[in-house]
Amino acid sequence: MKRRDFAFGAVSALAALGSGATPGVMAWAAGSSLQDRVAALLPSSEEDRWLEVPWRTNMMTAISEAGRAGKPVLLWVMNGNPLGCA
Amino acid sequence: MGEHLQLTRGPLRDWWDGVVKQSNPQYRGGSTQGYYILGGDGRGLTWDNYPPRLPQFLERGLALHRNSGARKGSISTEQIRAAAPAAPPPGTSIIRLYTRIRPLPAGASPSNQLLGRDYMWVLADEIKELLSASRSTSEPFKLPPTFVGRLVVFHLVDNVRGQVWPWQPASVRSASFTGRKVREAGGIRTLSLTGRFAKDDSHPPAWNTRGLEGTFEAELDLDVATARISRLRGLADCRAWSDATYDRGAPPPSGKYPLRIALMEAKDELSKQITPEQAGTGAYYLRATVVDR
Question: Alpha-carbon dihedral of residues B53, B113, A15, B153, nearest 10 degrees?
Answer without folding.
Answer: 150
